[in-house]
Amino acid sequence: MRTIHEAPREIPVVAEADVVVCGGGPGGFPAAIAAARHGAKTLLIERYGFLGGLATAGLVSPVLGHTASGVGSNASNTPIVEGILREITERMHALDGAPEWAATLTRWGIEFDAEALKIVLDELLQEAGVELLLHTVITDVVMDGDRILAVVVENKSGRQAVAGKLFIDATGDADIAARAGAPTTKGRPFDGRGESMGSFFHLAGYAPLSEERKQELREQIAHEMEDGRFRFYNAGFFGTNAHHKDHSAANMTRAAGDSTDVGDMTRAELNVRRDIWELLRYLRANVPEFEDAYVQQTSPQVGPRESRQVVGPYRLSGEDVTQGRKFDDGIARGSWWVDIHCPLGNTYPVHLCVASCPKGEECPFWAAEHERMLDRDELYPPQGDWYDIPYRSLLSVAVPNLLASGRCISATHEGMAGARVMGTCIAIGQAAGTAAALALAANTPLAEVDVQRLRQMLRDDGQLV
Ligand SMILES: Cc1cc2nc3c(=O)[nH]c(=O)nc-3n(C[C@H](O)[C@H](O)[C@H](O)COP(=O)(O)OP(=O)(O)OC[C@H]3O[C@@H](n4cnc5c(N)ncnc54)[C@H](O)[C@@H]3O)c2cc1C
Question: Which DSSP state fits 48?
Fold first, then answer.
């Protein structure tokens, strides 16, 4: 590839903080709130003009993983994540943007309105005293030996640096660790492919549908999918995953590719939008109730389910998930199962990669794994149980002043297929921010944080650990 020389230059250090949180999604916003509440001077950098990550920029809803494991459809009502997740749910409820907390425990996830989440996060972060740099992309890091001295950012004001004592990588894609040269892994061990991306969209303007009619339409779309007309991974185009039910909020699109490769990301955006409009055209022409339907909104970005993982002293594994493993240094709880959306975009109509792929024999991953994960129920933690996220999975083996949060913590492909959901990421984020503040207050390296004290602080803050 042709290269070009970029001249070195002096750039202004526009801010300095104790804790610099990189990314404002489910792994980032709770980290910033927790660090600031515990007295650390905290700054959060986010590339969009709003917070929430895929919860807002991906229109992803509901928040999953807030209750104990429900194998198959046996929902469990036992909460396993509270703390900041409960607080934002209650704040959203006050704005009619989510059900009340008690009601969420009887559902499989917390359905919410992305606009309510945006304003709740604006308010909570400002109340906690977090300094915000929105519309700012982190492009690089400046190292001092093995420590990060500053992150380099780009925004409308130009190229700048933000210095810090501790950094939390909540970019989803471990951008900070990768730029710092720390080891990261990506996807399946043998081909590096991560789960396929996807995107939520909202349809409106259609006539009410009875349950019977929905079933009929689901079968009709499934039939069209079998014929190769649509490339969705399920037929639930009238899914109402968001809190308000005057529109559909469907989670059915699929785009295989590497979300750290801009070519794949570009193709994914174009393909997913085309698929949504192909569906709308079909519905308008063939389903009378959808004659006047319209795309109310597509998400600002196609969503990566999995990309880079920071390598820490411990990698959360698929077995940790399915065994409901507990750790002495557990700082968050997860209950979502080994829910792999085929990295090749193959499985139809389900997303049970290892358990029931119809194209299994062609796939080396299936060949290697399916015998130990024979059916869907074996992919779950035991009924009513959960697994711990160990603090060691938030550390980097290479960069002592870096913590990972959200979906880029240290985990295997199968481990991350469980821990990636937003309830778990928010719990991890709260722990990461609290750990950073504790390390600063106790003047200890991140790797030597007193984890039992950290767990007590989390409990005192309403978290379940
Ligand atoms: C199609 C799809 C469906 C899903 N369904 C569900 C579901 O139903 N329920 C559920 O709970 N979870 C679901 N998930 C998973 C969940 O949405 C994510 O795993 C979760 O949002 C991860 O949180 P995060 O903060 O780690 O990453 P993200 O949500 O990706 O947030 C990362 C943040 O960092 C910012 N950022 C990234 N790089 C930079 C940079 N270089 N500079 C500045 N800012 C940066 C981004 O803009 C973003 O705000 C789904 C995911 C997808 C893709």
Answer: S
* Alpha-carbon dihedral sign for residues 56, 346, 407, 152: negative
d(C-alpha 292, C-alpha 320), whole Å:
48
Q: How high does pLDDT run on average in the chain?
A: 94
| Whether residue 358 has pLDDT greater than 80 | no
Q: H helices within 246-289, ranges in order?
A: 262-286
3-class secondary structure, 360? helix
Distance 210 CA to ligand 1 centre (A): 33
Q: Hey, which bits of 23-69 come out as E strands?
A: 42-45
**Nearest atom of ligand 1 to the alpha carbon of 54:** 29
Higher pLDDT, 227 or 331: 331
Please name which of 171, 138, 190, 199 lies closest in space to residue 407, comparing C-alpha atoms.
171
- C-beta of 305 in contact with ligand 1 (< 6 A): yes
Closest CA to 121 of 49, 208, 169, 17: 49
Nearest partner of 465 among 393, 383, 381, 386, judged by Cα = 386
What the block records as the tokens of 391 is: 């603090």
- Cα-to-centroid distance, 323 and ligand 1 (Å): 26
pLDDT at 281 over 90: yes
Any atom of ligand 1 within 6 Å of the Cβ of 47: yes
**Rounded-to-integer distance, Cα 266 and Cα 264, Å:** 5
Residue type, 356: S
Residue 302 in tokens? 């196609």
Dihedral in degrees, nearest 10, Cα atoms 305, 307, 311, 312: -20
| Residue minimizing CA distance to atom 23 of ligand 1 | 26
Q: Radius of gyration over alpha carbons of the chain, in Å?
A: 22
Q: What pLDDT is recorded for position 169?
A: 99
Pairing of strands 147-155, 158-169: antiparallel
Copy the structure tokens of residue 211: 């349950």
Q: Provide the strand spans (E) within 29-174.
A: 42-45, 131-133, 137-144, 147-155, 158-169
Question: Residue 408 and residue 304: Cα distance in Å, rounded?
Answer: 11
If we measure between CA atoms, which residue out of 319, 368, 402 comes closest to residue 150? 402
Ligand 1 within 6 A of CB of 390: no
Question: Within 13 Å of residue 149, how many CA atoms lie on the same side as its CB?
Answer: 6
- Has residue 72 got a pLDDT over 90? no
| Angle ∠(249,341,63) on CA atoms, nearest 5 | 45
Alpha helix positions (H), 317-363: 318-323, 353-356
b/e 170-194 (16+ beta carbons within 10 angstroms → b)? bbbbbbbbbbbebbbbbbbeeeebb
